Amino acid sequence: MKLINTVVPDLPLTILRDNQFVQANFSDYNRLVLVFYPQNFETTTITTLMKYSKQINRFTAQNIQVLAGSIESAFNIYAFNEQTKAKLDLFADKNAAISDYFGVNDKGKCIHGVVIIINQVIKFVGVGAELEPRVVLDLFEQLQ
User: Entry's InterPro entries (predicted)?
Assistant: First the structure.
């Protein structure tokens, strides 16, 4: 399925923000980076999220919001956040609707992926590779 330059469906999101669960939709965001990771509590996941957490001020300075998530329950994400204290909003995709849409669901487990959405239009989908935050910022700048 071709995703680039298509409007993202207004799927509901369960987001953990400041230790509180909130409901949102893709239409709530104008400049968004989605970061998909395999599973909570894995070393590579913690490393990836901490890299984004350390760079979050660079994203917010450009009015870019970052959401990181996986095919996990909201409560698993809450427990994971308690351990890592990452400064990122995390989303739970327990039913895998979001992961399926962006092609990162591999038999019930997320693979690494990054999606850039600008004004509800999908501009970039990278599946299967971890992208450093600085690379994502550069991509975002080029895609505007």
Answer: AhpC/TSA, Peroxiredoxin, Thioredoxin-like_sf
DSSP state at residue 8: P
State the CATH number of the domain containing residue 17: 3.40.30.10
Phi-psi domain of 97 (left: phi exceeds 0; alpha: psi -120 through 50; beta: other): alpha
Question: Token digits for 16?
Answer: 């953990």
Alpha helices in the chain, H assignment, sequence order: 43-54, 56-61, 74-84, 97-102, 133-143
Residues 45 and 37 sit within 8 Å (Cβ to Cβ) = yes
pLDDT per residue as tens digits for the range 79-138:
888 888 888 899 999 999 999 999 988 888 888 889 999 999 999 998 876 666 677 777
| Residue 106 placed within a domain | yes
Count: domains in the chain: 1
